[in-house]
Amino acid sequence: MAKDPVCGMFVEEGPDALKAEVRGVTYYFCSDTCLQTFVAPAKEVRLLRARTLISFALGVPTLLITWLAASSFTLYEIPKNLLLFILATPVQFGAGWMFYRGAWHAFRARAANMDTLIAIGTSAAWLYSTIVTFAPGVLPQGTYFDASTLIIGFILLGKLLEHTIRGRASDSVRKLLSLKPAKARLLVDGDEREVGVEELRVGDLFRVRPGERIPTDGVVVEGFSTVDEKILTGESVPVEKEVGHEVFGGTFNQTGVLVVKATKVGSDTALSQIVRLVEEAQASQAPVERLADRVSSYFVPIVVSVALFSLLGWWLIAGRPFLFGFTAFVAVLIIACPCALGLATPAAIVVGTGKGAQNGILVKGGENLERAYRIDTVVFDKTGTLTTGEPAVTDVVPIGNIDERGLISLAASAEKGSEHPIGRAIVKKASELGVKVEEPQEFEVVPGKGVVATLSGRRIVLGNRRLIEEHGVDLRGVSDTLNKLESQGKTAMILCVDKTIDGLIGVSDTLKPYAREVVEQLKKMGIRVVLLTGDNKATASFIAGQAGIEEVVAEVLPSQKAEVVRKLRSEGRRVAMVGDGINDAPALAVADLGIAIGSGTDIAIETAGVVLIKDDLRDVVGAIRLSRATMGKIRQNLFWAFAYNTLLIPVAAFGLLNPILAGVAMALSSVTVLGNSLLLNRFVLR
Amino acid sequence: MQKMANEERLRFKVIDFSCSTCLNAFRKKLRSVEGVTDVLSNAVTNEIYVYFDPEIVEPERIESTIKGIGYKTIREYD
């Protein structure tokens, strides 16, 4: 069974089946409509290529004969001008027919576009020359068949080049889609059966072997493996997967066999959602683009007026030969085609957002890209955003005859059965140090205070100030250490063995990797960094100090976070809020730019303008740098488009630009803008 | 982009090389169709995304509107 690439239906492969071969791959189709749809784009390209070839094949001889042959030149008794007419006419109405079509469609929509300009410009040249050919003496001598043919030739060539570059510019999204596997190994009562991915339903079990792509999103129910999730997250380090872990369609299973239960299929999968989001981001107009569109809608009428004015001006007012004015007229029309102007912004946005998507940075549309570029303040939520959100052991202070390892060993044994985050942090520290953890004989949790346990006949109390005092232990000997830990916002746990203090353990939330570098880089980029948290001032200042942040807003209720952001904005600052996207949704929404970090594959966060799939703070800098690079590219593109389209208009109006060269410049303008945008692919995010 | 729950999407690609600034025309025309909630277009890929409420307008009506504009287009499937 083969899949129809157009409608997705399954088709029998056979000698009678409808099929088409593209680059060595045979595709099968359910109907002639699907087959025609599939081959239509390739057919258009072939047609364009043929038209370009014809234009040059006839245009180059036209040019040579026009300029090199004497006016008395004949070929097979055909006089020079008639010969030129014979060469140029098929180009004008054959190869160049598409410009008339485009102009007609535009006219019907009561608009004028680049086709209108090209159609008028080349028709004028052709018509003038035709009149000269068949009614000599009516108009001043001289033909423009070389201009009409070669202008068409160069513009078609430009479109052909453009087509290739356009394909490469939008590659990133298509690459993602091409990684969707077509088949899955469905398990029915333990038997494996190969089916098309479309046939998978939520709840189905399927098997994935090493070296295969995972067909759809699901949960591992059996097996262990490492999976390369680079296509979703941009992270090249493979992720370990075991029972209970989520896996995603399109990611690459490396080492083990997995049995997975499907949780999402079809357009609900993370990959499909991401592709759709990027597509929509690329298709939404940035404010700067709307401006360019408005400019180009006034452009065409103005250009036609300038062209007519230069014709009449030179001929009637300046008294120059009609031909001089006419050359200026054609050149102005051709040079002024506003299509590069229209491509300047979308081309850069498509490449920029595609580049982001490849690296797990999803920018929702051109508008957010523009906002990211203007940001001058970044507000980080503390817990879970700048910090890991999980307490970790930061200080180990042994007292008396015990060492660090001994203290942690005792504490971890006492906390072994604990579900409390602080208890888990201590057990984790023990396993990091590789110290022995014993099973306590008795174990009791004192809520909000600590634990009491019996270990090898010794009574161990591990808890905060209040718990220790309740057990009648004097804390005066350790009060300095205790105060110091608490002033840093840490939770201090005191360990007593049979009423003697053996040491203190400081536990606190810790910074995520790269937090300090990221803050430093943002500052270097001229951005002010603010820490926003509901925690008390001591904890907040300690974490801020570690990260290198001077501006702290602490003791803010979750519901007030949005208010703080609004206040910063009212001070005239352009604020990006970085949060986890769930608790911080209101603050993300009121910021100029909401950045949701580490949301994984939950990209549907409506309030965020930028979604960072990975939980990596460096991507905050990456997103802002990418937006700056993209906006820079847009500005360059607008400059080039403007340079080609506008600065050359006076040159053409003064009769200093050969119409054929105007055609070359015109073709180059779009190619330049697209090619320049492609350079964004080389941008290094880190 | 807040999308409504009962909203569907059709995707088209303009394959006509005589389309230079034609996407504007598509956007304008399609937005005037009742039941069409939004139209996005990508000037690089020449793709058009039409969002519509299937209870108000049928996909066939959107397809015929697109055909009526004149440029060569193909419908793409997700």
3D architecture notes:
The complex is a heterodimer of chains A (686) and B (78). With 686 residues, chain A is of the alpha+beta class. In chain A, the strands form seven sheets. Chain A has a seven-stranded mixed β-sheet with strand order 16-28-27-26-17-24-25, with helices on both faces. Chain A has a six-stranded antiparallel β-sheet with strand order 8-7-9-15-10-13, with no helix packed on it. In chain A, a hairpin with a 2-residue loop joins strand 3 (18-22) and strand 4 (25-29). In chain A, helix 4 (114-134) runs antiparallel to helix 10 (322-335). Chain B is 27% helix and 31% strand. Chain B has two helices and four strands; from the N terminus they run βαββαβ. Chain B has helices at residues 22-31, 59-69; strands spanning 8-14, 36-42, 47-52, 73-76. In chain B, a hairpin with a 4-residue loop joins strand 2 and strand 3 (47-52). The longest helix of chain B has 11 residues, at 59-69. The relative contact order of chain B is 0.30. The model of chain B has no long low-confidence stretch (mean pLDDT 83). Classes of the chains: A alpha+beta (686), B alpha+beta (78). Chain A binds chain B through residues 6-8, 37, 40-41, 44, 48, 98-99, 101-102, 104-106, 108-109, 111, 113-115, 159, 163, 166, 169-170, 267, 272, 276, 279-280, 282-284, 293, 296-297, 337-339, 342-343, 346-347, 350, 364-365, 606, 674, and chain B through 1-2, 13, 15-22, 24-25, 28-29, 40-47, 49, 69-72, 74-75, 77-78.
Strand order in the largest sheet of chain B:
2-3-1-4
Computed CA radius of gyration of chain A, to the nearest angstrom: 35 Å
Taking all Cα atoms into account, the compactness measure Rg of chain B is 12 Å
Number of helices of chain B: 2
Q: How many β strands of chain B by DSSP?
A: 4
SSE arrangement of chain B, N to C: EHEEHE
